Amino acid sequence: MTVHIFTTGPDDMVFEEQYNVAGRRIFPWNEAVAEPFWGGAWVDVAPGDTSAAHSHDENEMFFITEGSGIMRIGEEKRRVSAGDTVFITPFKDHDLTNDGTTRLRFVTIWWGSAEAVAAERSYWAAQFGIEDGGTTPVGGPAGSGAGSPVAVDTEGVIGR
């Protein structure tokens, strides 16, 4: 077995204007693993800055590793700091404000987008040599492969 270590140094972080943060995406990680059906990144929010408010069709988790700030999910705001884990459900507008004097760093993972679910279904169908006929999504044509309707909790959860 080979041990793979992913190290992120200060020079590895790249400013992502779309999100108003500096980050380094973990995948693709060519030496270790093909890009999975989920994503991850190390992210820094600079002192006094707020990540760009956004929402998406994926579940997302933040693991706060350094600093502190204010996490907003929908209308709810909560203080977060190193050691906190934040869960954000799909389609919930969210942002993170660093109201401290040092960087606020977290690891984020996201999963479950319609595109990723369809790609994963197709991958496993090919692995097992079966046809992936997909399912009928609400309002979608049969066999579209877009997935089944799922009950979604629309509230994000912030935990300690």
UniProtKB/TrEMBL annotation:
Annotated spans, Disordered: 138-160
Pfam families: Cupin_2
Organism from which the protein derives: Streptomyces botrytidirepellens
Keywords, comma-separated and alphabetical: Metal-binding
Lineage of the organism: Bacteria, Bacillati, Actinomycetota, Actinomycetes, Kitasatosporales
GO molecular function annotation: metal ion binding
Protein name: Cupin domain-containing protein
Domain Cupin type-2, residue spans: 42-110
Keyword flag Cell cycle: no
InterPro entries linked to this entry: Cupin_2 (IPR013096), GPI/OXD (IPR051610), RmlC-like_jellyroll (IPR014710), RmlC_Cupin_sf (IPR011051)
